[in-house]
């Protein structure tokens, strides 16, 4: 048998699919729609193994749903704006647009060589004016609908990348890309009002039951709903401020008797008032700013405070006061920007109190603890318990105490307001989308000294990004461009200035999946198309996008609904987050990281040993790690695709571990996948040969081996289908291995002349096998399909129909009576019905002999009991 040659067959079938436009979605297709999408790639230049895994998973779903008779939308595009293009421009003098488009070309070719069932006619690139033009229109619509605001805000400023960073781009106080210490700056920025949707974005998560729980939890935590109390503290009379009270937000009003201080944010209006007369405080605030205010930074930083000299009245201990501090761990943009500290029951408060010699008063007694001896050590007590040391709250549970104290403060007044009001706070902040960056979608507004900030009229869209920019000065090239920003005001006609900030690239990816439903429309969407296709039935991507990208997309879909572009809120019905691709690491004897190509790994004395090829020196086999540039343990998909072909790479990605877990890429694993590919090809070609060799097949022979095989085949069809639907691809693969073994055993067991039933069962099994592998190894499957002489393409073939009778676990042996006399018997699957049994009986050799020359009047099948043939 000739070996299967993927290098020849894969490009062949890719061309056939392309020529036939096999995966192009037709508007008039009446079948039920199914939308499967993998997160679109950033065009960095080459695909990586993470892409291979992502797209292999998605393609299985797409091809399977096609086989199930769905009209499948499976598009691809490019998340093409962003920093790396600018860095390439700065470092290598390449024009960002040219660089990006070259990368897209290269990566498109790579993706095509994977044989993905994509509708390439719908390709979009976010850096294309054809795309961002509509994004600018959406921005204008959202502006008009009150979903966009412009406000002053403190931002994280990366002094090296010269840009504003989102909080999550600040890691340990440093820029995620540049690694430089992040500073605070005050800038006027554009914001999407995502916080208006906090409650809706939160509660709607409950209905997203095809999402992983962990992703929903991450979203919940990010939205961060807190129910608590706004509590007013009356300031003691003083000369320093005109303010007479401080508002704090607390989720633990039950600990009020343990209060030992008040702390306000360095950015609190009170602080801003006090710094004028207090240079040391001004210095303290400046120091806080140098350290940044990103939440993460603050959690790790040492708690620092500055006593303002102010005191407030203790709200439940008449005659006592609490000192007011400015503290670095209090954020201005959460709650009220001020807290009361209860050192016994909050770790930060405890550290702060210990540092500044403030009292630590425990007020929650752990179950079973002795109130006389219970004290707080190095750790605050944050668990459940009973309130004590708290006058009228004593003996209550935390929840009871919260209610009681809320009622208590509701009826009291400070500054003419209720002293306590129940309040809900969300951690979710408005989404700042301004970036002082060149390679992004321009924000379509114009600043006029007379008229203010004016939207660009829709007829003037797109505001095209100029490509003739230079990167010789730091900062935003749009600011340095000689002409671009100078325009006439659309309202008064006077010289005005374009907005030179561009949009956060998360905006680009927040609606591309809707654009795919009508990628060539001259409006952002065609609502009827958007509504027909959306929501995405199955979205697949990395868990690193589980928070922001998904949250922003959920917000955007809502915003697009409010502005009439779509009729639904939730963009992704099914969500799946894949695991990462890992690989062994290697180090040379002098401690350099070595790439897998630079080492040879062999078995020696029972363990694996590595040698550095270049030097011949022994190398160390290190731990298994996520593929990364720094550890040099990457595998280039191009090499894999060239050496083994796409089907092998796809098969291995699917086979080795559950898709939500990490998969370890190993040479041995790929070799195994490649061998399996050859095994299937051999099985198919040999099965074909049998039908020729065994031309003289003994007719009419029902046999139990055939039945047993058919049962294995049909069970495999059922299980593989279920496993694909449940995204348990590795289990589907295991089923296919088993089926292949069974078919091979059957084939080997055949001797000429073979019973026809067994040959037929083998043939049926092999045909079904080819269909089962088609979503995973589509090229091999097409080759087999053609060799088997089957019609059309396997890509167009409907999923095999399972005979339920063959799924029944047990068989029964039925007596066969001919004209009332018992003549033979037959073993069939339990529960086999009239038609199946009838066919089998007639094909049974002894029956056929006895019936020769006679005409059958009637066959009565009593399922699982008896067969009566009347002649
Ligand atoms: C007193 C108290 C006592 C608190 C106690 C906690 C434990 P979540 O659940 O995240 O909403 N807080 C309020 N505003 C803050 C701000 N702007 N910056 C930093 N911390 C702030 O947390 C609410 C709790 O975080 C509030 O409840 C407040 O401290 C603090 F034993 O009030 B608590
Ligand atoms: Zn004007």
Automatic annotation (TrEMBL):
It is found in: Cytoplasm. It catalyses: tRNA(Leu) + L-leucine + ATP = L-leucyl-tRNA(Leu) + AMP + diphosphate. Residues 36-170 form the Methionyl/Leucyl tRNA synthetase domain. Keywords: Aminoacyl-tRNA synthetase, ATP-binding, Cytoplasm, Ligase, Nucleotide-binding, Protein biosynthesis. Pfam families: Anticodon_1, tRNA-synt_1, tRNA-synt_1_2, tRNA-synt_1g. Residues 428-584, 625-665 form the Aminoacyl-tRNA synthetase class Ia domain. A motif ('HIGH' region) lies at residues 41-51. GO terms for molecular function: ligase activity. A motif ('KMSKS' region) lies at residues 626-630. The keyword Cytoplasm applies. InterPro entries: aa-tRNA-synth_I_CS (IPR001412), aa-tRNA-synth_Ia (IPR002300), Leu-tRNA-ligase (IPR002302), Leu_tRNA-synth_edit (IPR025709), M/V/L/I-tRNA-synth_anticd-bd (IPR013155), Methionyl/Leucyl_tRNA_Synth (IPR015413), Rossmann-like_a/b/a_fold (IPR014729), tRNAsynth_Ia_anticodon-bd (IPR009080). It is an enzyme of class 6 (ligase). Residues 220-409 form the Leucyl-tRNA synthetase editing domain. HAMAP family: Leu_tRNA_synth_B (MF_00049_B). Belongs to the class-I aminoacyl-tRNA synthetase family. NCBIfam families: leuS_bact. This is Leucine--tRNA ligase. It comes from Devosia nitrariae.
């Amino acid at each position: 048998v000739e070996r299967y040659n993927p290098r020849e067959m894969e490009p062949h079938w890719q061309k056939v699919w392309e020529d036939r436009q096999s995966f192009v979605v037709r508007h008039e297709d009446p079948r039920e729609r199914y939308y499967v999408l993998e997160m679109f790639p950033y065009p960095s230049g080459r695909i990586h193994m993470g892409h291979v895994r992502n797209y292999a998973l998605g393609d299985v779903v797409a091809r399977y749903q096609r086989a199930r008779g769905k009209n499948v939308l499976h598009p691809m595009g490019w998340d093409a704006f962003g920093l790396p293009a600018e860095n390439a421009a700065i470092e290598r003098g390449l024009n960002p647009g040219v660089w990006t488009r070259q990368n897209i070309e290269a990566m498109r070719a790579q993706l095509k060589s994977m044989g993905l069932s994509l509708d390439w006619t719908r390709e979009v690139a976010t850096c294309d004016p054809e795309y961002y033009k509509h994004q600018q229109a959406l921005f204008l619509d959202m502006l008009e609908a009150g979903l966009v605001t412009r406000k002053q805000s403190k931002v994280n400023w990366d002094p090296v990348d010269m840009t504003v960073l989102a909080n999550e781009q600040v890691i340990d106080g440093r820029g995620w890309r540049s690694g430089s210490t992040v500073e605070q700056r005050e800038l006027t920025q554009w914001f999407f009002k995502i916080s208006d949707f906090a409650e809706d974005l939160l509660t709607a998560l409950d209905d997203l039951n095809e999402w992983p729980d962990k992703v929903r939890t991450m979203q919940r935590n990010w939205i961060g709903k807190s129910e608590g109390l706004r509590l007013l503290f009356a300031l003691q009379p003083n000369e320093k401020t005109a303010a007479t009270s401080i508002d704090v937000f607390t989720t633990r009003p039950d600990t009020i008797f343990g209060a030992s201080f008040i702390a306000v944010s360095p950015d609190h209006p009170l602080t801003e008032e006090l710094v004028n007369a207090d240079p040391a405080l001004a210095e303290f605030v400046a120091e806080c700013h140098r350290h940044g205010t990103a939440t993460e930074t603050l959690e790790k930083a040492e708690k620092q405070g500055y006593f303002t000299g102010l005191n407030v009245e203790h709200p439940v201990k008449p005659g006592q006061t609490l000192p007011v501090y400015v503290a670095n761990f209090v954020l201005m943009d959460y709650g009220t920007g001020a807290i009361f500290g209860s050192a016994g029951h909050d770790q930060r408060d405890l550290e702060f109190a210990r540092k500044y010699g403030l009292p630590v008063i425990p007020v929650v007694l752990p179950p079973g603890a002795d109130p006389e001896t219970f004290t707080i050590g190095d750790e605050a007590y944050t668990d459940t318990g009973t309130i004590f040391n708290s006058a009228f709250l004593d003996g209550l549970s935390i929840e009871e105490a919260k209610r009681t104290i809320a009622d208590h403060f509701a009826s009291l007044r400070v500054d003419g307001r209720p002293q306590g009001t129940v309040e809900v706070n969300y951690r979710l902040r408005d989404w700042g989308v301004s970036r002082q960056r060149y390679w992004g979608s321009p924000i379509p507004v114009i600043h006029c000294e007379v008229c203010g900030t004016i939207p660009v009229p829709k007829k003037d869209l797109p505001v095209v990004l100029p490509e003739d920019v230079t990167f010789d000065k730091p900062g935003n090239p749009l600011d340095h461009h000689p002409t671009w920003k100078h325009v006439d005001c659309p309202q008064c006609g006077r010289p005005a200035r374009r907005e030179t900030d561009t949009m956060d690239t998360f905006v680009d990816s927040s609606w591309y999946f809707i654009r795919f439903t009508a990628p060539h429309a001259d409006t952002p969407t065609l609502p009827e198309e958007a509504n027909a296709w959306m929501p995405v039935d199955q979205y697949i991507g990395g868990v690193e996008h589980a928070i922001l990208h998904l949250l922003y997309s959920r917000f955007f879909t809502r915003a697009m609904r409010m502005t009439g572009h779509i009729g639904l809120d939730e963009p992704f019905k099914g969500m799946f987050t894949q695991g990462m691709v890992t690989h062994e690491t290697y180090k040379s004897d002098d401690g350099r990281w070595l790439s897998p190509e630079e080492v040879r790994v062999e078995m020696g004395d029972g363990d694996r040993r590595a040698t550095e090829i270049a030097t011949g020196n022994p190398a160390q086999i290190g731990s298994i790690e996520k593929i990364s540039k720094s550890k040099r343990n990457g595998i280039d998909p191009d090499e894999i695709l060239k050496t083994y072909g796409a089907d092998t790479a796809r098969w291995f990605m699917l086979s080795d571990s559950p898709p939500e877990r990490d998969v370890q890429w190993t040479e041995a694993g790929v070799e195994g996948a490649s061998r399996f590919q050859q095994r299937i090809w051999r099985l198919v070609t040999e099965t074909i040969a049998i039908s020729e060799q065994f031309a003289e097949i003994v007719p009419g022979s029902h046999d139990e081996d055939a039945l047993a095989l058919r049962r294995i085949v049909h069970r495999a069809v059922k299980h593989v289908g279920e496993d694909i639907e449940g995204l348990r691809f590795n289990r589907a693969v295991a089923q296919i291995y088993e089926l292949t073994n069974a078919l091979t055993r059957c084939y080997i067991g055949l001797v000429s002349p073979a019973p026809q039933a067994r040959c037929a069962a083998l043939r049926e099994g092999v045909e079904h096998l080819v269909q089962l592998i088609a979503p995973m190894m589509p090229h091999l499957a097409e080759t087999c399909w053609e060799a088997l002489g089957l019609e059309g393409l396997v890509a167009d073939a409907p999923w095999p129909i399972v005979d339920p009778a063959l799924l029944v676990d047990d068989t029964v042996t039925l007596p066969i009576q001919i004209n009332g006399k018992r003549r033979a018997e037959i073993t069939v699957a339990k529960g086999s019905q009239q038609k199946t049994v009838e066919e089998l009986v007639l094909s049974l050799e002894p029956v056929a002999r006895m019936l020769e020359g006679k005409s059958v009047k009637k066959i009565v099948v009593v399922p699982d009991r008896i067969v009566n043939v009347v002649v």
